[in-house]
Amino acid sequence: MKFLISMHINPAVLDALTEEEMAGIGEGHSRFMQALKDSGEFIMTQALVDPSQAAVVRVRNGQPVVTDGPFLEAKEYLGGFYLVDVQNKERAIELAAQIPDAAIEGLGLEVRQIMFSDGQLEA
């Protein structure tokens, strides 16, 4: 079963962390990724730029309208994700709890099963 583990970022929370704490997060992600690879559960991970660097595209009257910045005004945003292939939802939740962000007050992880992938419904 494939699951997406989304990392939701609150920039105010990250700004309040020390350099040592930020380094610890990076090191924790490195260890987590290696453990996923070693277990064979790793598919991929990606980190996203800050929403201020995003573009929002909407089509109005058949024409694309592009605006800068985030889609929604929110204090939290999607910062990245892990895509994993695991036995069940419980394992995906167990893995999410190992991601360093889960232990930081004000940050959160969302675990969602993949429903459709590469033209195929997932089992």
From TrEMBL:
Residues 1-113 form the YCII-related domain. Pfam families: YCII. InterPro entries: Dimeric_a/b-barrel (IPR011008), YCII (IPR005545). It comes from the Bacteria. PANTHER family: BLL7171 PROTEIN, BLL7171 PROTEIN-RELATED. Belongs to the YciI family. This is YCII-related protein. It comes from Catenulispora acidiphila (strain DSM 44928 / JCM 14897 / NBRC 102108 / NRRL B-24433 / ID139908).
